[in-house]
Design a protein that fits this description.
Elements lengths: L1 E5 L3 H4 L9 H12 L4 E5 L3 H18 L5 E4 L9 H7 L5 E4 L6 H10 L3 E4 L7 H14 L3 E3 L7 H11 L6 E11 L1 H6 L9 H17 L2 E10 L2 H4 L7 E9 L5 E12 L7 E9 L3 E5 L5 E5 L2 E6 L5 E4 L5 E4 L1 H17 L15 H19 L5 E2 L3
Parallel strand pairs: 1-2, 1-4, 2-3, 4-5, 5-6, 7-10
Antiparallel strand pairs: 7-11, 8-9, 8-17, 9-10, 11-12, 13-14, 15-16
Length: about 400
């Protein structure tokens, strides 16, 4: 199986952190489990960043004791290569994992599909409904499998919520409440080169918009958003510190319920976890509450501040036979996609078979619709904006 990764940033390799990111560990873990990666090509835009990614991957595979052919581009031998060249020169590649800023998703994913590659793209699919629908239609035309890396669907807490709701134990939904935030360094340092083309709802909130779709199969019908600009604006970033978004959802039986999203990316650097995240879901028969920051593990060392560890997302563990293995919902999200691609490659499945059970492009249209209409609401003095899909 041949895989292409487009992007070399923090989520790919942990660049700028002590870790290894999520995408490279997931691909490495997939090969450890299956021994099926025949070639990996990682392409970025800057040779220095590519070299840093190469160094990260070398350390990762040394720890994992996993080896397979890898090419990092651009390189000293090919300093001007672009991702489009990689697509053209790797016709036998089975799939592409796209990890780039949101405003580049449409162009890059469109070119991947035109080159007949199955695609996994980090959330959101696109910032606009029109772009998302265009990619959906193109993928259908080319019979290409397209999915969005909504890893929260693999979070055990959210899967408990899914089971309890679908078993009828929570009754008819009344409302859902989510608070989700990250440290100030995310917009002001890690993403500073492209943060002005994004917002916190689009970056973080979209996960829990997708979770409501995943759990209830409802459709969003109306959106209102309120936002504040202060700390980031003072530092030259014309983006919201925080956004509060209210979404009306409609079930197939026309029942309406509300979702409240409170998101920010200006938490103090001293907070005990990169992400502070909680969800509540209230129905006529019961409620579900998930504290997705405090999962019961705390690390206190002389060398660093107190840390609340999320053992469920993306972490390396020693197995019972002494191997280093990667586990977590971030790992399973990527590995699941590659397993799906293998089933298509081997003639066991078709792309359409994954509708309804995966975060496909069609499923991701709903979260895209909410973030587009929320942005319009912010522009229109927090007006209610209707969604018609």
């Amino acid at each position: 199986m041949e895989v292409i990764i487009i992007g070399t940033g923090m989520y790919v390799s942990g660049r700028g952190t002590d870790g290894f990111g999520t995408i490279l560990p997931a691909v490495s873990e997939f090969h450890r489990r299956t021994n099926l990666i025949s070639k990996l090509t990682v392409v970025g835009t800057d040779i220095n960043r590519t070299n840093l990614t190469r160094d990260k991957f070398s350390k990762l595979n040394y720890q994992n004791k996993v080896n397979f052919p890898v090419e990092f581009l651009p390189s000293g031998n090919d300093p001007y290569v672009k991702y489009i060249d990689v697509l053209k020169n790797n016709e036998s590649a089975d799939c592409v994992i796209v990890v780039v800023p949101d405003n580049l998703h449409f162009e890059i994913v469109e070119n991947c599909i035109k080159h007949n590659k199955h695609v996994l793209v980090v959330k959101p699919l696109t910032p606009t409904i029109l772009e998302a629908k265009t990619l959906i239609e193109l993928a259908k035309k080319k019979n290409v499998y397209g999915a969005v890396e909504f890893h929260k669907r693999w979070d055990k807490q959210n899967r408990i919520l899914l089971d309890e709701f679908q078993n009828g134990n929570l009754g008819t939904p009344l409302y859902s409440w989510t608070e989700y935030s990250q440290r100030k360094s995310v917009p002001s340092d890690i993403f500073k080169s492209w943060v002005n083309n994004n917002n916190i709802l689009q970056y973080l909130g979209t996960h829990y918009i997708d979770i409501i779709r995943f759990v209830t199969k409802a459709k969003p019908v109306e959106v209102l958003a309120v936002g504040q600009k202060s700390w980031l604006l003072e530092r030259g970033f014309n983006v919201h510190d925080s956004i509060q978004c209210f979404v009306k959802w409609e079930l197939d039986n026309k029942t309406l319920f509300n979702q409240t999203l409170l998101v920010n990316w200006i938490d103090p650097e001293t907070t005990s976890a990169m992400s502070d995240q909680n969800i509540k879901f209230v129905g006529t028969k019961g409620r579900f509450e998930g504290d997705q920051k405090n999962r019961g593990s705390r690390l206190v060392l002389d060398s660093k501040q107190i840390e609340e560890i999320n053992p469920d997302f993306c972490k390396s563990f020693q197995s019972s036979n002494g191997e280093r293995v990667w586990e977590g919902y971030g790992i399973e999200s990527v590995c699941n996609f590659m397993t799906d691609v293998l089933q298509i490659k081997n003639g066991k499945k078709n792309p359409i078979d994954f509708e309804g059970s995966r975060p496909t492009f069609m499923e991701s249209l709903y979260s895209t619709a909410v973030i587009e209409k929320a942005y319009k609401s912010l522009q229109n003095k927090s007006s209610w904006e209707k969604i018609n899909l």
